[in-house]
Amino acid sequence: MAAATKKTAAKVAAKKAPAKTAATRVAAKRPALKKTAPKQAGRPVGTSSNAMDASQRIDRKIASLGDWRGERLAQLRRLIHEVDPQVVEEWKWMGTPVWSHDGMYALANPHKDKVKLTFFHGAKLDDPAKLFNAGLDGGKWRAIDFREGDKLDTRALKALLRAAIAYNTTHSVPKSRGSRG
If exposure means fewest CB atoms within 10 Å of the residue's CB, which of 35, 113, 132, 165 is most exposed? Predict the structure, then answer.
């Protein structure tokens, strides 16, 4: 009689417990996830304390190209620094040079057959010289694809860089100065 009582109690408990779904059964079979250490404050994600800084990484990227793409990337970088002496160089997305002033305004990527200079808010910028030749359908970004042998219109490019910096400066969100009661 005790065995019958145990079976009845098990059936009642099974009816009260939620039914196991396929997802629950699969999740139960998965190995436990590896616990990760919490991120350290004050250090950008993806960098270590002995990592090269962004400028050094960009230098290394230019040197590693060893062809016209490295020369063009170096030329674009020089122009950016001429236009914006306070520019902040960053290294993002596993190998992309980014330039910021009150927020990111440009990035450059060497590709097999071109060097692409992308403007984050390019759709908002005037481009009287019609330098933008890529990403024209996007609502935010615009880019210039430089191919081997293309002539660089430095005057027009500097004007576009200045416009990008001005856009960031006028549209940046001021940093909080604390709450006022």
Answer: 35
Task: Give the tens place of pLDDT for each residue, 40-53.
Answer: 333 343 433 334 69
What does the domain layout of the chain look like in residue ranges?
A: 73-171
Cβ atoms of 158 and 79 closer than 8 Å: yes
* Model pTM score: 0.67
Fold for the domain defined by 73-171? Aspartate Aminotransferase, domain 1 (3.90.1150)
Which residue is listed with tokens 């330039």?
Answer: 99
CA distance linking residue 148 with residue 145, whole number of Å: 10
pLDDT (tens digit per residue) in 101-131:
999 999 999 999 999 999 999 999 999 999 9
Say if residues 76 and 108 touch (Cβ distance below 8 Å).
yes
> Which of 105, 107, 90, 81 shows the shortest CA–CA distance to 53?
90
